[in-house]
Specification:
Structural class: alpha+beta
Strand content: 25-35%
Radius of gyration: 34 Å
Shape: elongated
Oligomer: single chain
Amino acid sequence: MARTGGRNSWIAVPVGLLCAAVVASLVWLALPMVPVAITWVGDTLRSATAPRPEATPERTPAQTAAEGGAVDCRTLYSDDLWNELMWREGSLLNQSMAAPATSATAFADAASPDVLVTCGWRFDSGSIVTTLSKVDADAATIAEAALAGDGFSCRTADGATRCDRTRGAVREEHTLRDGLWLVSVESDWHPEDYGPRVDHTVWG
């Protein structure tokens, strides 16, 4: 058999053996990763063909309260309203179980609210106190007459009774729906559409 000119077998044989040893070493080092690679390929194929689970819809505070879950101040506010309140100059939040700050004490006594959370905001110029409570189902039926007698303007729509009143620098807003009573008392500062925005977050 003819040899290629210029090739030295004394060099070619050791180099060939060395290359074979390197390849064998690499194969030996890669063996532990073979099961991992097989698993990865299998998971990739399964995830590509399996239907994606539907996202769990976020529950409203009203739904959480109806199921006996805990409600806190953060859950009552959308992100934009929360940021507006938090960044107000001198903002300070006190979360408690205090009774509603309403001036309609006769209705408050009749409603016998079971307070879920009270959010008391203080600012350099003004304050807001918002309370969410459980009430009897018939509280909504007496709310309109009771609050109207205290000078509130009331209306009923979409299963909710809403009443509001502004006297001087104080605005008071009430919403009764689905066995819940949401009342807010805003003093000196009135964020735009504060009551409807909180309503929307609580009930969706």
